[in-house]
Amino acid sequence: MASTRKISSRIKSAKNISQITKAMQMVSASKMKKAQDLALNGEPYSLELRRVLISLLSTVTSFKHRLLKVNHEAEKNLCVFVTTNKGLCGGLNTNHFRSIMRWYREHPNTDFITIGKKGRVFLSAMGANIIADYSELPDNIDFAHTLPITHQLTSVYKQQTYKRIYFSYNKFVSTLTQKPQLLQLLPIELEDLKDSLGLLEEISTEEEQKFEPKEYILEPSKKQIINWLLPYFVELQVYHFLLENKASEHSARMVAMKNASENAQEIMQQLRLVYNRMRQQTVTAELADIVTASMVVQ
């Protein structure tokens, strides 16, 4: 009887876990929908801004801007490492940790800015130098929340403190797929902009004409427009990357909680089979004792 009570207790525990993970799945699904909409709705705007920059930079000669120039005098790189504050999101952080660890081995002379407590703890354990942490960002990220991060990045880069600045986050591909992505944020390079739009691949003549430099009469001048657009482009990129990372987090957590709920249900079914089998054996043994006792009495 003691073992049946133990199994019954395990069934109750699995049921409680299933209820908790099911509730967490529903919460993550709600947050995921909002985060996905924000990330996907901002993508066309980001792409169009890249097209404008490509067109302007391709037609301006001998233009110099600090955000376009590699700081060869600097020895270190800077990387913004974005993870989650909480766990229970499957292999999202683990895959990102493996990716950044491989990259860090190849670029050991790198400082970090962390966004997310999980990444801060991981880099601290690795012995990496963390110059700033922005893990206290709200769950519903607004453009204004990301401005202090971007201003620090552009400030230290203009001061030639770092040679290059990179951004590592989880790119949202779909609800079931998220992958670690590490991109160069600064300096802004024309070839990288073209590559992000697929312009370095073979494209049709019609598509090529869309990106050919066009001569417009602009007021104010092209250089003034570029001077304003470049910092704004960095701000928009950081904001968009953080939105994608947030969408990836909620998607991964929803899928992880869904799998946990299904696993708990499966364990409950297996335990019920064991419980019923043990109960059947107990009843059979009791019946056998009764039949034996009646035969003895007769």
Task: Give an overview in words.
- With 298 residues, the protein is of the alpha/beta class.
- The chain has a domain at 41-248: 3-Layer(aba) Sandwich (Pyruvate Kinase, Chain: A, domain 1), CATH 3.40.1380.
- It contains 7 helices and 5 strands, in the order αβαβαβαββααα.
- The protein has a 5-stranded mixed beta sheet with strand order 3-2-1-4-5, with helices on both faces.
- β1 (77-82), α2 and β2 form a beta-alpha-beta unit.
- α1 (2-59) runs antiparallel to α7 (222-297) and α4 packs across α7 (222-297).
- The radius of gyration is 29 Å and the shape is elongated.
How would you write the strand order of the largest sheet?
3-2-1-4-5
Order of helices and strands: HEHEHEHEEHHH
- Compute the number of helices: 7
Please name the fourth-level CATH homologous superfamily of the domain at 41-248.
ATP synthase, F1 complex, gamma subunit
Distance between the termini: 30 Å
Global mean pLDDT: 84
What is the CATH class of the domain at 41-248? Alpha Beta
| CATH architectural category of the domain at 41-248 | 3-Layer(aba) Sandwich
Structural class: alpha/beta
CATH topology of the domain at 41-248: Pyruvate Kinase, Chain: A, domain 1
Query: How many β-strand runs?
Result: 5
Short description:
The protein has 298 residues and is of the alpha/beta class. It contains 7 helices and 5 strands, in the order αβαβαβαββααα. The chain has a domain at 41-248: Pyruvate Kinase, Chain: A, domain 1.
